[in-house]
């Protein structure tokens, strides 16, 4: 027998559905606006006010001018190298550190954690960081964007918490069979921690992809610029206008759509990657919130 829903339950569910639809629109609309603005006619967009639900005309001039810059392809290549090499180093070192700190038999475990947490609140500052990078010879090297950010303290604590949630009985059984710490880490701990690994990939990957400040500080050779710094140059230094030879009026109109095209160029790769990690993301991200 099916129980009839009361009027109050129907009202409550309806309110929730409408509220969620509204929140979805508020979240999705900025993305829709940027996409439509990037393919709109520049002259029509400059004189338009209000919400944008369709392209105003259709023009790919903004994308043409963005990709006309020869630094775009090189910037993509540099960024992909930083992301891929950085992820390998990030995940490896973070996993090693998290595994060691999650072992109850580790001596001075609590003092070590206090020193690590201390770095979340206090840092040496930009000048000591620059001098350190310069001292080890990483200036004008893509490794200057990778090695100084090899381990993020928050991510280390998150992965450590995930490793601690794995039952001790598995480790004890493996040690009885003669397994050492490397075997336990790679054959037991990591395979059981895929949700948090996916979160680490997303956190570190997005961090590397969006990074531009370190590149601006440590890189002088333009051929080493990552994508974000190239796009910043297009917007702020007028490189596209110089390459295209556009007149002042045309350049002013093109600037109206150029900023939206650069947002799309920089964001689309991350948007394509996220759906593949989404099923792990919520579970992995909440691990540190339920057990500290």
Give an overview in words.
- The protein is an all-alpha fold.
- The chain folds into two domains: 7-61, no CATH class; 62-290, Orthogonal Bundle (MetI-like fold), CATH 1.10.3720.10.
- It is built from 15 helices and no strands.
- It has helices at residues 7-38, 42-46, 61-68, 71-102, 109-121, 126-135, 153-164, 168-176, 181-189, 194-210, 213-218, 227-237, 239-244, 248-285, 287-290.
- Helix 3 packs across helix 14 and helix 10 runs antiparallel to helix 14 (248-285).
- The longest helix has 38 residues, at 248-285.
- The protein is flat.
- It is found in: Cell membrane.
- It comes from Paenibacillus allorhizoplanae.
* Structural class by sheet pairing and helices: mainly alpha
The second-level CATH architecture of the largest domain is Orthogonal Bundle
Total number of helical segments?
A: 15
**Major sheet, described briefly?**
none
Average per-residue pLDDT, rounded, comes to 82
Total count of domains: 2
CATH topology of the largest domain: MetI-like fold
Distance between the termini: 45 Å
Q: What is the total tally of β strands?
A: 0
């Amino acid at each position: 027998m099916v129980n009839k829903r009361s009027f109050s339950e129907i009202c409550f569910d309806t309110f929730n559905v409408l509220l969620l639809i509204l929140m979805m629109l508020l979240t999705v609309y900025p993305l829709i606006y940027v996409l439509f603005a990037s393919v709109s006619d520049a002259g029509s967009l400059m004189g338009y006010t209000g919400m944008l639900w369709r392209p105003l005309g259709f023009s790919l001039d903004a994308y043409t001018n963005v990709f006309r810059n020869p630094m775009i392809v090189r910037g993509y290549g540099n960024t992909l190298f930083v992301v891929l090499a950085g992820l390998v180093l990030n995940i490896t070192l973070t996993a090693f550190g998290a595994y060691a700190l999650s072992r109850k038999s580790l001596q001075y475990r609590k003092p070590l954690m206090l020193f690590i947490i201390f770095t979340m609140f206090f840092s040496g500052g930009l000048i000591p960081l620059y001098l350190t990078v310069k001292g080890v010879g990483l200036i004008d090297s893509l490794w200057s964007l990778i090695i100084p950010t090899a381990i993020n303290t928050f991510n280390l604590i998150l992965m450590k918490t995930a490793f601690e949630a794995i039952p001790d009985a598995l480790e004890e059984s493996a040690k009885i069979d003669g397994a050492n710490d490397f075997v336990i880490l790679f054959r037991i701990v990591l395979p059981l921690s895929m949700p948090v690994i996916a979160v680490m990939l997303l956190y570190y990957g997005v961090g590397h992809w969006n990074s531009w400040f370190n590149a601006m500080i440590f890189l002088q050779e333009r051929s080493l610029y990552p994508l974000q710094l190239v796009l910043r140059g297009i917007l702020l230094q007028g490189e596209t206008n110089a390459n295209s030879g556009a007149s002042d009026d045309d350049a002013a109109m093109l600037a109206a759509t150029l900023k939206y095209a650069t947002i799309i160029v920089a964001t689309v790769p991350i948007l394509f990657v996220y759906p593949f990690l989404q099923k792990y993301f919520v579970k992995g991200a909440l691990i540190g919130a339920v057990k500290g």
